[in-house]
Specification:
single chain
Length: 110
């Protein structure tokens, strides 16, 4: 068991949720063009790739911490920092999407 700042049951819940969300985002990616034809489907697919890869990253990291795989603590620290950057990328995509879709409608910007 690798020493982490998280309690084991919390890490296990995070891992399970991340694996489930990974599957959901893959489903969204697969059906993006049916849900939104054209460019909107392409944009939805791009967001789905970003979020699916973040979920996979989190799921793999949580699983590596839970299982005794012998991953060095230094590698996990670097991995955690990459995951944090990945999370911020996802949040930026959501913010840009809200700005482009919601705010532009309110102010009638084309």
């Amino acid at each position: 068991m690798t020493v982490t700042s998280d309690v084991l049951w919390v890490r296990a819940i995070v891992a399970v949720m991340a694996w489930i969300n990974f599957g959901l985002w893959l489903w969204i990616w697969r059906h993006a063009y049916a849900a939104r034809p054209g460019v909107a489907g392409l944009l939805l697919r791009g967001r789905a790739v970003t979020f699916a890869s973040y979920c996979l990253n989190t799921a793999l990291m949580s699983t590596a911490i839970i299982l005794p795989l012998g991953v060095p603590v230094e590698a996990l620290v670097v991995w955690r920092n990459i995951t944090r950057l990945h999370a911020q990328l996802g949040l930026s995509i959501v913010a840009i999407d809200i700005l482009l879709n919601e705010v532009s409608k309110r102010f009638k910007v084309s």
